[in-house]
Design brief:
Blueprint lengths: L1 H22 L15 E8 L8 H18 L3 E8 L3 E8 L2 H11 L5 E4 L11
Antiparallel strand pairs: 1-3, 1-4, 2-3
Helix pairs in contact: 2-3
Length: 127
């Protein structure tokens, strides 16, 4: 039953990512020659009892992440995260996977699985 619920949560997360991806541009809007593609990534962070973190703890984690992102620059962006029992699933836009790893290292966050989102489907795909 737990695997079934996790599967449903993952499907919902992927549907949300689709909506986020469609709502955002996929390239940096810079007018310079160095315009690069921003890819969408799903990061799985193993954090025991993540679902029991208090609002204050989640705020602190969010503030740390935003601080690191400000220092790293616009080539990496945090879109949203989902807190579950023992994991946090994060959606990021970044030029490459190495930036995701650098953010995790600088912030002291695990990044156990990093998956590039290659294609997005949703109920709209069926139409």
């Amino acid at each position: 039953m737990k695997k079934f619920i996790n599967g449903i949560m993952l499907i919902c997360l992927l549907q949300f990512i689709g909506h986020v991806s469609l709502a955002q541009t996929s390239t940096n809007n810079s007018t310079t020659k160095n315009s690069t593609v921003m890819k969408t990534y799903l990061i799985e962070r193993d954090i025991p009892d993540a679902g029991k973190l208090t609002p204050e703890q989640l705020k602190g984690i969010s503030q740390k992440s935003c601080s690191v992102l400000r220092d790293m620059g616009p080539q990496i962006q945090w879109i949203q995260s989902y807190v579950t029992g023992n994991k946090i699933y994060c959606v990021y836009k970044a030029e490459n996977e190495e930036l995701i790893r650098e953010h995790a290292k600088k912030g002291g966050f695990p990044a156990n699985v990093i998956t590039e989102i290659s294609t997005v489907i949703s109920p709209a795909t069926a139409e």
